Amino acid sequence: MSEDLSAGTLRTVTSLIQNRWWIGAPLMVIIVLYVLPLAGAPPAINPNELARIELGVAMADGARLDIGPVALVYGLSEDVARRGVRIYSDKAPGLSILAAPVTLLLGPLLPPVPDTGLPAFWPLRHLLTLLLVALPTAGLAFVIVAGVPGADPFRRSGLAIIIALATPLWAYATVFFGHAPAAVLVTVAWVLLLRPGVAERPPHRLHALLGGAAAGFAVTVEYPTVLLAGVIFGALIVRRTPLSILGWAAAGTIVGLLPALSYHQLAFGAPWLTGYAFKAHTEFQAIHARGVLGVSLPSLEALWGVLFSVRRGLFYFSPILMLAPLGLWRMARRRGFRDVAPLSFAITVYVLFAAGFVDWEAGWCTAARHLVPIVPLLAIPALNALVNFDSGWSWKVLAAGLIAISGVNAALSISLTPFFPPQFDVPLAQLVLPSLADGAGLHNIMSAAIGVPAIAVVIAILVVTVAALGWASSRVLQMPRRWVAAVFAVTIGAQLLWLGWRGTGATTEVELMRAQVLQRLGYECLAERIERDTAMSGPYIPRRR
Fold it and tell me: How many structural domains is the chain composed of?
């Protein structure tokens, strides 16, 4: 392929316009499913979200970095740093920096907190998540599939649905964390600088500058992506990219990093010091004191945990991504190691980082949240395998089954809450399904606007997800729809039976933790009923409030 990236991009955009129905309809389905959970006001606030939003509000309200005055209104997060008498967010500042102008411009349109000039927390949280996380992540799927060889627009639409609705990107598109935006930025940097699938020519100066800025700001949003930025620049050097182009890319990276470096200087006294060096919470201090900022040598337990465990394993929650090694092999056979080598190295380095993190379970979350920034990099070869590997009907049945399992896991991950405490060994079986059976469900726009029961919305989400992925599987794998329906029915039925079996015989500790989660979501009566039932069946341990 000798076409220039600009010409290839122009043809892709033209193709999207010419096939606007087949692109527009899947995109709208993805956006609706991503936006639905952005409603409600549960009693408890996630500390990760709280710290990021308070920094954004502080910058918008008074051009300050100290979040203490804002915390008096919204509450004090656990994820903070203390330096002297001042309180700061200890998170990477990128998402908060983006939130500041949005809050400044649109905050006055939101209902205020009484007796303050600040917008109410939950409407602001939903608005920021919509604009800065959900919508960019919804579009990310179409960026990823644009360069998959051998796929016409119809199959690319199907691939986009698969990556959007059958991976943890869905769950992390609904929360104000940095992982999904970092995935978007890393993908943009990867496409602009390494130009996968196109001619072996260096990027244009403008692409180098923009790609470098995306890579730098990815680090500003999520610190560990510095590893991926390093892989990108290493690949450019190995490819003997002209110094002038490397200079443009480096300049862009510095621009992207400047907000973080400035924040570190102003808040913590030096550009290289982060909030992790000033952790206020003693338990978190102990975690980050081990190794280098909480990262040490990888362990087999953590490696298994972040990849395959039923508690956090990325490949357990999204087994379709296990096709990545097969896709890398196919890509190497088609084009050699030019694209495969940096992909393989980036994935390996980042997985080892996640497995070396002392707190690899990463608190209350779904799947291995520290691996979310490389989901697009895993998706590129996995989708290549779906399109370009054909080993008969057995392969198609296997692939359709993996898509079905991944989709149901992704839908269940947002059906109640995407925040799973690590006390649950099998959170989908021990927390989500029992709570859905009790009538609980996610806070959502339909319930908030017109009073539709949450469980009815959950059922609708599951039906739409299965239907969309069934259509996508039929297109991508070129299988008759009745065969896809049969594979989905058998696979999903077996999966739900297995989850139901794993959820039986819950211990007292597990049920009390489930009650605590439901209480935090606002299901007080249901939480109290679970506590009463647990007290009658075994030793009672009061729930922490």
Answer: 3
Q: Determine the pLDDT at residue 533.
A: 86
Q: What is the dihedral of CA 150, 377, 204, 338, to 10 degrees?
A: -70
Both 489 and 366 in one domain: the answer is no
Mean pLDDT (whole number) for 345-355: 95
Across residues 55-70, what is the average pLDDT? 93
Instruction: Enter the tokens of residue 384.
Output: 């290549």
> Do both 26 and 90 map to the same domain?
no
Domain range for 186: 5-31+129-388
Residues 69 and 187 in one domain: no
In this prediction, residue 5 has a pLDDT band, given cuts at 50, 70 and 90, of: very low
Instruction: Write the DSSP string, 478-492.
Output: T--HHHHHHHHHHHH
The pLDDT confidence band at residue 490, using thresholds 50, 70 and 90, is very high
**What does residue 87 show for φ and ψ, rounded to 5 degrees?**
-120, 130
In a shared domain, residues 114 and 169: no
> CA-to-CA distance for 350 and 328, rounded, in angstroms?
17
Q: Which of 103, 123, 143 represents a domain boundary (last residue)?
A: 123
CA distance 319 to 395: 15
Whether residues 203 and 308 share a domain: the answer is yes
The H-or-E segment that residue 81 falls in is strand 80-83
Instruction: Specify the pLDDT at position 4.
Output: 47
Residue 541 is predicted with a pLDDT of 43
Residue 319 and residue 203 share a domain: yes
Q: How confident is the model at residue 303 (pLDDT cuts 50, 70, 90)?
A: very high
Amino acid letter, residue 133: V
- Whole-number mean pLDDT of the chain? 89
How far is residue 432 CA from its own chain's centroid?
19
| Cβ atoms of 197 and 162 closer than 8 Å | no
Residue matched to tokens 């196109």: 198
Q: Domain for residue 222, yes or no?
A: yes
In a domain, 41, yes or no: no
